[in-house]
Known about the structure:
Elements: H1 3-10, H2 14-21, H3 29-41, E1 59-66, H4 77-93, E2 97-104, H5 108-118, E3 122-126, H6 132-138, E4 144-148, E5 158-162, H7 164-177, E6 183-188, H8 193-209, E7 216-219, H9 222-235, E8 243-246, H10 249-261, E9 271-273, E10 290-292, H11 295-310, E11 320-323, E12 326-328
Parallel strand pairs: 1-2, 1-3, 3-4, 4-5, 5-11, 6-7, 6-8, 8-9
Antiparallel strand pairs: 10-12
Helix pairs in contact: 1-2, 1-3, 4-11, 7-8, 9-10
Amino acid sequence: MGIKEIAAEAGVSKTTVSLALNGHKGVSDETRTRILEIARRMNYRLPSERIVHQESKGFIMFARLSKHGLILNRDQSSFIVDYIDSINDAVTKAGYTFEILDHTFTSVSTLTELLSSRKPKGIIVLGTELDEDDVHNLQSLPFTFVVIDTQFESACCDFVDMANIAALTKIVNHLIDRGHKRIGMISCTTPSGNIILRERGFSLALERSGLSPASFLRIQPGFKGAYNDTKTYLKQENQLPEAFFCYNDVAALGVMKALKEHRIRIPEDVSIIGFDNLPMSSMSEPRLTTIKVPNRLIGTIATELLVKKLSTKHQKESITIQVNGTLVVRDSVMDRR
């Protein structure tokens, strides 16, 4: 049994279960007690119980670093919980204990000071909101670390991330196979490493297919930003493409709401594809075609890489691992053939 099953039994989110099981704030005593009772009834070994039968080697930290909270927000909570759950399992299996650090990143010196007081054996950094300079600065950390959910080719550190460019090839080919020729991308005014790679993958896929050069509509992050900026775009009477790829599901749902309010039909007038396969994407109207990110696998691989680096003297060589996702075909793409 895992967090998903406990959440279903308790009638709460996976985020709430993760917080309760790991002793973090944000859960009422009543809810925490109920979750712990269900976990024990399901024979789920709690994090505190998993180390009873083995000598801990110290702890590995999952550092969720945010800069502005525009990408790492509540809409992404289920996505992040899958990282936490998989990392927790892999860390415990390797004989370490697990801790979570939520930190607003302002400088590497502040982060170093905080980490030095905690003394983790190693760190898995959620780098979603970090830019290229931030990642370069992380290289001065006096700890072994692996970065997930972003990557930058110029930074010599360890990354485990989604294979963004390969995913965009799947998306563009899917649209072309269904007769779309004019395809635009909804991108973000606050780009992350993943968004930059998705823009590059989108451009490359169109170029290989011999279609018109890529066009980008950059909108404010989040559901509200996508909704408001798409409304502004539509008021300017721009010619719509036949399809939009949106940089993530949250943006796609905001775009879809704005299109519907302008009586633009999805997918009859405009096809939409998202990215992340958040739970809400299967409940939208129409249901959203999207890319399922293998975030549990990413979390497991990142932990195994970190543990291997902690156990060997050869820690200087940096490694980048990309994990392919899956196109989840639903109802938001029109067959125009």
